[in-house]
Design a protein that fits this description.
By secondary structure, the chain is mainly alpha-helical. The protein has helices at about 5-15, 20-35, 55-85, 85-90, 100-130, 135-160, 165-180, 195-200, 205-215, 220-240. The chain has one domain. It holds the Pfam family ABC2_membrane_3. Keywords: Antibiotic resistance, Cell membrane, Membrane, Transmembrane, Transmembrane helix, Transport.
Amino acid sequence: MSASTAVLKAELRLFGREPFALFWIVAFPSVLLAVLGLIPSFRTPDPGLGGARVIDLYVPVNVLLAMIMAGVQALPPVLSGYRERGILRRMSTTPMRPAALLAAQIVLHFAAALGSALLVVAVGRLAFDVAPPDRLPGYLLAVLLGALGALAMGAAVAAVTPTVKATTVVGSVVLFPAMFAAGVWGPVQTMPEPLRRVVECLPFGAASQALYRAAEGGSPDWTHLGITAAWAAVLIAAAVRWFRWE
C-alpha cells in the first residue's frame, strides 16, 4: 500500500465519523428536493417556463447544492482544523507531505458530493418523474466544473482565515450568496432578466444554467462553462497563493 493510499484510507475512516457533515453533503440536497416536490404548484407544468415544471428546474439546482455544501461548508473547517492543530506542520517534517492529506480531503469531499448528486437525480426521477439528463457528457462537464469551483472556493476560504472559528463564520457568509446564485431560493431561469444576467456571471449561477441546459436536452452554453472554469481557475490560484501550512 502506498503512503498516499494509506492517508486516503485513514481520512476516509475519519470522514465517516462526521455524521453532520455527511448529512449536509449527501442527504440535505435530496431532502430539500423532496420537500419542494410536495408543493403542488411545483409539480404543475408552467407555460412561463416553456411547459416545464418548477421541480424540473430544482433537480440541477440541488445537484449543484451538493457541490456547494461539500466545498464551501464542509471542507474549509477540516483544512483549517488540521492547520490550527499543527498536523500539517508536523507532516512537513516527515516523508509524507501535507499535500497528500489535503488531496485526500478534496477527493473524499468530491466523492461525497458526486454521490449526493446521483441521489438527487434518482429522487427526482423516482419521486417526481423528472427526466434524467439527455446530454450526459455536457452534464458531467458542468458537474465537474461546478465541483471544482466549489472545492476551490472552500480552499480559498480556508487559506485566508486563521482559525477554525473564523473559517466557519466566513464559510457561512459565503454559503448563502453561493446558494442564491445557484438558484436555491429561486431557480435562475425564473429571476428577472437584469438579475439573471448578473447571476450568470457568478460561478454557481453560470454552472446552474449549464446544468439546466444539459438536463433539458440541449448542449451547455460554452459561455456558462467558460465562466465557471474561469472562476475555478481564479479561486485555485488564490488558494495556492494564500494557503499556509501553519
